[in-house]
Amino acid sequence: MARSNSSNAWMKEHVNDHYVHQAKKEGYRARAAFKLLEINEKDKLFKQGLWVADLGAAPGSWSQVASQYVGESGRVFALDLLEMTPIRGVDFIQGDFGNEEVLAQYTELLAGRQVDLVICDMAPNITGNAVMDQARSMYLCELALEFVREQLKPNGYFLVKVFQGYGFTEYMRAMRETFSSVVTRNPKASRDRSNETYLLGKQKKA
């Protein structure tokens, strides 16, 4: 089957992408690693010994970054609907984040302890219907924020990918109710045509 024009354009962009080549060179599973690395350079999210929850982790580039920074004394707990090849030092649960049984299985890994940092790069499978895709994206973000309210320590940090559009203002308001400070981050590794942005909640309110 012949590729569509949009598919061909994506393939050309991907092949010529600086961050794709850099990811292969440095051993990261996806170019998304450089988004997290850039944000961490500015905001110092990671340090040795932290417990980190990685929501929407596959193929695992964010978990790779997190595990490198937290070291042997830290833990990374990853979750995704898709399969993820194991990473040393990362506990992984495969399943739907919106499923209560999967979420219960995931929180069991924490053994009653709250995490220090939640990172979330989740996005729904794109249907091409902009309204539906935005609604599904915001739903995932809301689920992540619910998780944060229960499983993130007071003064902890939460980094989440959000697509600007319907529900963004309301979500920002909910973030500000939960954290002492909320800032936006737009890393250079984000594609120019993407309307994604990252919200960083700092110091979760008790």
From TrEMBL:
Subcellular location: Cytoplasm
Residues at the active site: K161 (proton acceptor)
Region (Disordered) residue spans: 186-206
Signal peptide: none
Pfam families assigned: FtsJ
Record flagged with keyword Secreted: no
UniProt main location, coarse: cytoplasm
Gene3D superfamilies for the chain: Vaccinia Virus protein VP39
Record key words, sorted: Cytoplasm, Methyltransferase, rRNA processing, S-adenosyl-L-methionine, Transferase
SUPFAM superfamilies the UniProt entry points to: S-adenosyl-L-methionine-dependent methyltransferases
Assigned EC number: 2.1.1.166
GO cellular component terms, A-Z: cytoplasm
Top-level division of the source organism's lineage: Bacteria
Domain Ribosomal RNA methyltransferase FtsJ intervals: 28-203
GO MF annotations, alphabetized: rRNA (uridine-2'-O-)-methyltransferase activity
Binding-site list for S-adenosyl-L-methionine: G60, W62, D80, D96, D121
Swiss-Prot/TrEMBL catalytic activity: uridine(2552) in 23S rRNA + S-adenosyl-L-methionine = 2'-O-methyluridine(2552) in 23S rRNA + S-adenosyl-L-homocysteine + H(+)
Function in brief: Specifically methylates the uridine in position 2552 of 23S rRNA at the 2'-O position of the ribose in the fully assembled 50S ribosomal subunit.
Family stated for the protein in its record: Belongs to the class I-like SAM-binding methyltransferase superfamily. RNA methyltransferase RlmE family.
NCBIfam families: PRK11188.1 (NF008390)
Protein's name in the database: Ribosomal RNA large subunit methyltransferase E
Gene: rlmE
